[in-house]
Amino acid sequence: MQVEKIELENGSAMGLSFQMQNAPLLVIRADKGFVMCGYLDLDTAGILGDVAVRVKGVNTFDDVLKAQVVGATPDAIDLGIKVGMTGKEALELMF
Description:
Layout: E1 2-7, E2 12-19, E3 24-29, E4 33-36, H1 42-47, E5 51-54, H2 61-66, E6 71-72, H3 74-78, H4 87-92
Parallel strand pairs: 4-5
Antiparallel strand pairs: 1-2, 2-3, 3-4, 5-6
């Protein structure tokens, strides 16, 4: 497991990478929410009231930051996050 502090313009986020059998499970958490890879379930995050967005096809934290958001919970959309923005752009709105 790898835990890394990720410095962004609006604050510091915490990255978590856990190597599964075929690909890494990746999450980057900011103060108000998180960006997750395709391993995690966006519907459950929405039911729980989390500010969460999903990206796909990522293997590193840098990939997560550059990848386009493919889905967002209602609470993330309320913060101004939109499908198509980058993971980094979404995280900046989560501080």
